[in-house]
Amino acid sequence: MPPRLQVRQLQSPLAGPYSFELAAGQCITISGPSGSGKSLLLRMLCDLDPNTGEILLDGAPRSSINPPAWRAQVLYQPAEPAWWLPTAGAHFRPGQIPRMQELLPQLNLSPQLLEHEVSRLSTGERQRMALIRSLACNPKVLLLDEPTAALDPESVAATEALLHQEVANGLSLILVTHSEAQAQTLGHRHMTLRDRQLHMHGGATP
Ligand SMILES: Nc1ncnc2c1ncn2[C@@H]1O[C@H](COP(=O)(O)OP(=O)(O)OP(=O)(O)O)[C@@H](O)[C@H]1O
Q1: For site-directed labelling of 101, which of 1, 11, 19, 82 has its Cα 20 to 30 A away?
Q2: Which uninterrupted H or E stretch holds 199?
Q3: Locate the ABC transporter domain: which residues (predicted)?
Q4: What pTM does this model have?
């Protein structure tokens, strides 16, 4: 079986080239100083920024998959996720509701928050709700940019437990984090970006 994701010579005028592989049920963490290119890498992987090189998903080249379908399967959650409808609940399609209802208590979120204006939610509530929104899309690869940056320790622990569970169930995760402890807890392999160059540490498969 091919790896979940094969990245070959991925680059843009701003970053790369990057080459690496990610298996199903594996988590790679990315750390590095501010401005080192972590978000640029995630944006190239989900094809939001112009780039060259090749990426294969379960052996299928990106060029054979239309861009919206690619972004649904290789899903990017930015550090400050966008909301385009008035309430958080309005962002879920009917088919996603059972999964959303299962995930809310795992991140200590009350279902009542779904009806609140997004702007009324706290930063941490929005961040956890965004993760639920991403997981409810059931992506094969999730690209998470600092998903616990705004959270208190209890919410960080709940988020890490959920991500651990999802990866154990087969999700492939690329996680940008500034937390060494979080990288050690969740990551099977670790990348460091410095001056937009990639350094890989650890090669264990899950
Ligand atoms: N479209 C663009 N055009 C030119 N420069 C850009 C563009 N997007 C990002 N940059 C620059 O590329 C560098 C890397 O940006 P990036 O957002 O990937 O950093 P980062 O490692 O994610 O940082 P942080 O930890 O602060 O989020 C930064 O210096 C940024 O200003």
Answers
A1: 82
A2: strand 197-201
A3: 5-206
A4: 0.94
Question: How high is the ipTM of this complex?
Answer: 0.94
Burial (0-12, 13-18, 19+ Cβ within 10 Å), 19? middle
Q: Give the residues across from 52 on adjacent strands.
A: 11
Q: Is 40 in the pocket of ligand 1 (CB under 6 A)?
A: yes
Handedness of CA 161, 188, 152, 84 (dihedral sign): negative
- Tallying the residues shown for the chain, one arrives at 206
Classify burial at 147, counting beta carbons within 10 Å of its beta carbon; exposed 0-12, middle 13-18, buried 19 or more. buried
Ligand 1 pocket residue status of 37, Cβ below 6 Å? yes
Atom of ligand 1 nearest to the CA of 36: 21
Best residue among 10, 39, 51, 174 to mutate for probing ligand 1, ranked by most atoms within 8 Å of CB: 39
pLDDT tens digits, residue range 77-126?
Answer: 999 999 999 999 999 999 999 999 999 999 999 999 999 999 999 999 99
Residue 38 Cβ < 6 Å to ligand 1: yes
User: Cα of 42 to ligand 1 centre, how many Å?
Assistant: 11
- Domain coordinates in residue numbering, the chain: 5-201
| CATH number among 3.40.50.2000, 1.10.10.10, 3.10.20.600, 3.40.50.300, domain 5-201 | 3.40.50.300
Closest C-alpha to 130, from 154, 102, 159: 159
